[in-house]
Specification:
Layout (H helix, E strand, L loop, with lengths): L2 E3 L8 E4 L2 E3 L6 E4 L15 E3 L8 E6 L2 E5 L16 H12 L27
Antiparallel strand pairs: 1-2, 2-3, 3-4, 5-6, 6-7
């Protein structure tokens, strides 16, 4: 296992191995993307994992035959964090997944037990 994903409603990451998300805290398996495959042979990684659709939890993209499938969580969270794509380090890590070394993206601030409010994004619209 070499991939992590913020999937459910808590601040801990889940394990992403092949096409299966597993909840590490012992509350059971997240899901398996039936009919989908991972990429990169023995690394067994998704096509992409990233916060694509809004809140801070991540989606995962898998190859399924001749198409791509995007999976997102259906679990509710009490934690309110802006979209992770507003964090420049996270956005650069997402870009690197498809251009260099395929590893999960990481934020420039801590998300997890005992976390503080994340820094306000430095975004300017002109």
């Amino acid at each position: 296992m070499n991939f992590l994903i913020w999937w459910d409603g808590d601040e801990s990451r889940e394990l992403l191995d092949g096409n299966t998300v597993t909840n590490f805290d012992g509350e059971g398996r997240g899901f398996t993307a039936s009919g989908c495959t991972s990429i990169n042979g023995s690394k067994s990684v998704p096509t992409l994992s990233a916060d694509l659709f809004g809140d801070w939890r991540e989606e995962v993209v898998f190859l399924c035959g001749d198409s791509l499938r995007i999976y997102t969580t259906d679990q509710i969270t009490r934690r309110r964090i802006y979209t992770l794509m507003h964090d420049p380090q996270y956005r650069a890590n997402v870009s690197a997944q498809n251009a260099t070394y395929n590893q999960p993206p990481h934020t420039s601030f801590h998300i997890g037990d005992g976390m503080r409010e994340p820094p306000r994004p430095d975004i300017t619209v002109r």
